[in-house]
Design brief:
Elements: H1 4-10, E1 55-56, E2 59-62, H2 75-79, E3 85-87, E4 93-95, E5 102-105, H3 118-124, E6 130-136, E7 152-157, E8 164-174, E9 179-189, E10 192-203, E11 207-216, E12 223-233, E13 236-249, E14 253-265, E15 268-277, E16 283-309, E17 316-340, E18 348-371, E19 374-397, E20 400-403, E21 409-427, E22 432-449, E23 455-474, E24 477-488, H4 492-495, E25 499-503, E26 506-509, E27 517-530, E28 533-545, E29 548-556, E30 559-566, E31 569-582, E32 587-603, E33 609-628, E34 631-640, E35 643-645, E36 648-650, E37 653-663, E38 668-675, E39 682-688, E40 692-700, E41 704-714
Parallel strand pairs: 5-7, 26-30
Antiparallel strand pairs: 1-2, 2-6, 3-4, 6-7, 8-9, 8-41, 9-10, 10-13, 11-12, 11-40, 12-15, 13-14, 14-16, 15-16, 16-17, 17-18, 18-19, 19-20, 19-21, 21-22, 22-23, 23-24, 24-27, 25-26, 27-28, 28-31, 29-30, 31-32, 32-33, 33-34, 34-37, 35-36, 36-39, 37-38, 38-41, 39-40
């Protein structure tokens, strides 16, 4: 028998036409059954046939499998189809314009999606392995603060617990020699379940960049001009393997274990052209730097989980252990060739070796049971995060290498976290539901710069309350309110005090004295059904104290140092809307917009504070046209508004993607898609302060064509390849909708104690 208490605590209310609350099941719970009489302490269940909840009391769930291009895209492509989420070609992820975003996999942190490794990790992960994406703008007490305490994007990976075997194979060819392929499958018999997959990818984005810079020369008081033109070329290879084995020990207990591996090359050739003007406006230095880089990234993880269903209705115990690691190594060779020699300059060569390693151990436990007419949940977390970074820069003179100590470093960060949390959820009456929680989190970290004397340690205890409420306005309308206090801890790169060389004009250094950012976030939402369309309108406000922002100043002539600092604070607010449904029997729309106002107060190199404000409109619209039973066309427009970044901002940009799907046979599908159809994607950043004015524009060969085949085999009868194995005729909201289980459904780990 399914359990409504567990349903409400994990998922809460969902807008499903006439129901304000929907029923889901836990990983150890059978499929939903019709509601039966329960004791007084148990909340009433609602059974819904053929519907998939899109919203839960603390999150929105989006079914990315409805995207036509999922069979040949990456995880970055899948995230780019989620409302208010943007992923640029560098792998930077933003949500509502903020880059302080946590990315979890099945509710848990993963080293492959941390720090500078995130972009490569998202490109190496196949979109077809993702079941749904959960957007958690105000994380509750059960969520920790790894890699920032901001909003969470939880990637829910595919699970299948139906008896028998099923699988899918994809093969795709792209422009300029690109290709990717993936095979995944499941087999379940009796108490045993098996799932696994492998994918390979040869892909990448060539780029060009133009930078113009005017800096204040303190000696003369003049603004000195310089330019940088850059090109980068090189496609990279990636491979990913994953597997899960589960076993049911009777009706109430189950265990599972999983392992994943992702590898990616990191080779590239580049050329930079630097021109520096003197005070008199004449060229003072003109040279080119050629770069040849070789490297690779290795990411691995394994985990084990135990689930127990107790004797009380809704009583569950979950124990989960996850271990993940990443290792990124690269070697770069540089050669400087001068057309105009500046003072003390000469043709030269150099080498740079980078080695970054990270290991995360995450051990959590959660216990849930009925309490006082509602459902109580208690959990703990013990975690360690060990990050190491080594940079060795060598100048080459006459074939002999000499270590450059200014550009070399060896750094280690050890971070340990212990947390306890509790939450209680209840349905007050037929209209009101509420969820309240409190998390206590203790953090201890040590920083050590092995090649220098820099060392620091810090520890702090934080309390983080959260509250969610839903109100049933009518049979088709809900109001939602949420509040959460969060903590953004600086990561290893933010804290590393070593000066990291990026190019001749730019270096980076962390700040070991950074304080965590405290965030208070509020949200009020209204959702209803209008003209046959599902609509959501959300107003939000976020206030950051000690906000971590970029801070820039010059070390030497035209060598700009970018570091991190705690700003005076920032505020952000706005209105977000989503609309989805059928405009006609053949035309489906999924659209969203975000009208935002962001304000940041920062300090410049002269010690003066300035406040910047950006009003921006971001949005995306996806149109699916079902020409006939065998042919489908999809257009996806994405627009990213202006965003603030410390002493500057990033300009708006937009892209348009086109996808076609043709069903050849019930099992075989042909898919073609073009990304960035008009080749408009670019990253433009502007810095404007008293001592520096800079505009940087990076462009990518974004217009890429992929054509491929997707073949589905096995599975229960009555499935169609275009719906990924879902029952025919099962209703769901186009482009949205949880698979009815999210991370807490059959065969999928619940997002507990993260």
């Amino acid at each position: 028998m399914s359990n409504p208490l567990l349903t409400i605590c994990l998922g809460g209310a969902a807008l499903i036409h006439a129901e304000a609350f929907a029923q889901t099941t836990s990983a150890a719970t059978p499929a939903a059954a019709p509601a039966k009489a329960q004791p007084a302490t148990v909340l009433p269940a609602v059974t819904v046939t053929g519907e998939r909840p899109t919203n839960r009391i603390d999150r929105q769930v989006y079914d990315v499998r409805s995207d036509v291009s999922s069979s040949n895209g990456s995880a970055a492509d899948a995230l780019n189809n989620v409302p208010s989420v943007a992923v640029d070609p560098d792998g930077t992820v933003t949500l509502r314009g903020s880059s302080n975003v946590q990315i979890l996999v099945d509710g848990k942190p993963s080293a492959m999606l941390q720090g500078e490794n995130r972009g490569a990790g998202l490109q190496a992960m196949a979109a077809d392995d993702i079941e749904s994406v959960e957007v958690i703008n105000n994380p509750g007490a059960q969520f920790g603060n790894e890699a920032g305490g901001g909003p969470i994007l939880n990637l829910v990976m595919r699970r299948n617990r139906k008896p028998g075997g099923a699988g899918v194979a994809n093969a795709n060819l792209g422009s300029a020699g690109r290709y990717n392929s993936a095979v995944s499958g499941t087999y379940n018999e009796g108490a045993w379940g098996y799932q696994g997959g492998i994918n390979v990818r040869h892909d990448g984005r060539n780029s060009t960049a133009d930078v113009t810079r005017d800096r204040l020369d303190r000696a003369s008081g003049a603004m000195l001009h310089s330019t940088q033109q850059s090109t980068g070329n090189g496609l990279n290879d990636a491979v990913g393997v994953n597997g899960t084995v589960s076993y049911s020990i009777g009706a109430n207990d189950s265990v599972s274990t999983s392992a994943t591996f992702n590898g990616r090359s990191n080779d590239q050739k580049g050329r930079d052209h630097y021109v520096l003007d003197g005070v008199d406006g004449a060229v003072a230095s003109d040279y080119q730097r050629a770069t040849a880089r070789e490297g690779d990234s290795r990411n691995a993880s394994w985990g084990a989980r135990y689930d127990h269903k107790g004797a009380l209705p809704g009583e569950t115990l979950k124990i989960d252990l996850r271990v993940s690691s990443s290792n990124n190594v690269s070697d770069s060779n540089y050669a400087n060739t001068y057309a105009v020699f500046g003072p003390g300059t000469f043709d030269s060569q150099a080498r740079q070796h980078n080695d970054m390693r990270q290991k995360i151990v995450d051990f959590t436990g959660d216990y849930e049971r009925p309490l006082a007419g509602g459902s109580a949940k208690l959990g703990y977390k013990l975690a360690s995060n060990d990050s190491q970074s080594e940079t060795l820069y060598t100048d080459v003179y006459g074939g002999l290498g000499v270590v450059n100590p200014r550009r070399s470093s060896e750094y280690e960060l050890k971070e340990n976290t212990a947390a306890l949390y509790g939450s209680w959820q209840t349905r007050i009456n037929d209209k009101w539901g509420a969820l309240a929680g409190l998390r206590a989190e203790y953090t201890d970290l040590d920083i050590h710069q092995r090649l220098g004397t820099a060392a620091a340690s810090n520890s702090y205890l934080n309390l983080m309350p959260s509250f969610f409420a839903t109100y049933k306005v009518s049979d088709i309308s809900n109001l939602r309110f949420s509040y959460a206090h969060r903590l953004r801890r600086p990561n290893a790169g933010d804290l590393n005090p070593a000066v990291i060389y990026r190019d001749e004009f730019n270096v980076f250094s962390g700040n070991p004295n950074l304080k965590p950012t405290q965030t208070d976030s509020f949200e009020l939402g209204y959702e209803t059904r209008m003209a046959g369309l599902e609509t959501n309108l959300r107003g939000y406000f976020r206030r950051d104290t000690d906000a971590i922002v970029d801070y820039r100043y010059f070390l030497d002539d035209n060598v700009l140092l970018t570091t991190r600092a705690n700003g005076a604070g920032s505020r952000a607010g706005g209105l977000e809307f989503t609309v989805s449904g059928k405009l006609t029997p053949k035309l489906t729309i999924n659209a969203n917009g975000n009208l935002a106002r962001n304000q940041q107060t920062t300090q410049d190199s002269e010690g003066f504070y300035s406040t910047r404000v950006a009003n921006s409109l971001s949005g995306r619209a996806r149109l699916n046209y079902q020409y006939d039973a065998a042919n489908q066309l999809q257009l996806a427009l994405q627009m990213q508004g202006k965003t603030l970044s410390g002493q500057g901002y990033r300009s708006p940009n937009s892209t348009l993607n086109l996808s076609l799907r043709h069903v050849v046979t019930p099992q075989l599908t042909l898919v073609a898609n073009v990304t960035d159809l008009f080749n408009t994607n670019k990253i433009e950043t502007v810095i404007d302060s008293a001592t520096l004015r800079e505009t940087s524009t990076r462009r990518f060969d974004g217009r890429l064509l992929y054509v491929g085949l997707s073949y589905r085999f096995g599975g229960p009868a009555g499935k169609s390849p275009e719906d990924g194995g879902r029952e025919r005729g099962a209703g769901r909201r186009p482009g949205m909708g949880s698979p009815g289980r999210g991370p807490g459904g059959p065969g999928g780990p619940a997002p507990d104690g993260v």
